[in-house]
Amino acid sequence: MSVSGRPAEKRSFTEPIPEVYLAAGLLERAVEQHIASNYKFAEDLFGSADLMVLWDWANSHWDRRWRSVVKPHVDGLPTANSLDGREKARMPSKITRAEVLQRDGYHCRFCGIPVIPEEVRKKAHSLYPSVVRWGRKSEEQHAAFQALWLQFDHLVPHSRGGTNEVRNIVVACAPCNYGRGNFLLNEVGISDPFLRPPVKSMWQGLAQFVKSR
Fold this sequence. Notes:
The chain is mostly helical and 213 residues long. The protein is 35% helix and 5% strand. It is built from eight helices and two strands. Helix 1 (18-35) runs antiparallel to helix 2 (39-48). The protein is globular and about 45 Å long. InterPro entries: HNH_5, HNH_nuc, NA-targeting_endonuclease. One of its GO terms (molecular function) is endonuclease activity. It comes from Litoreibacter ponti.
């Protein structure tokens, strides 16, 4: 805890667990096998990436039953704005999302893990529904696709008057996005992600899978 009584700043609520990168590697291999028309091998790899320990880690950020993230009560800070005081559009435009992706790449700007666009998961679910499960409830969702789900996160939340401008949007994973909810960064002790450069790697969010047959 800092001298001011607020949490000491860190880059994310929790550090990524090793299974995050294991699952990303399995999904990457699954996509490679699918593109090579080795569909049974691809199916096995997609299924292997559905790791329960990864599901537990992701859900610890938002599920009250086993949440490991403790959000402080903060007095004297702005509450949610009225609907009239914020932008009507909840999410940034396609052009803005493309600019943010160009700047940030396919890694969470907070914890740094690789992330995967929703369209990749949708295609995997449509082609391999028996192993890439995806239901409305969290426990019905494939662990890797849930934890690595690419989000466009508002640094100042939309409900707090945040805009859809590029400077207020970052690429994030689902745990970092949903874990913070409507809190400002300083309210939960998370440092400004622009204080450090984005992760640079060859990871492109498995975009090649969407383009494949």
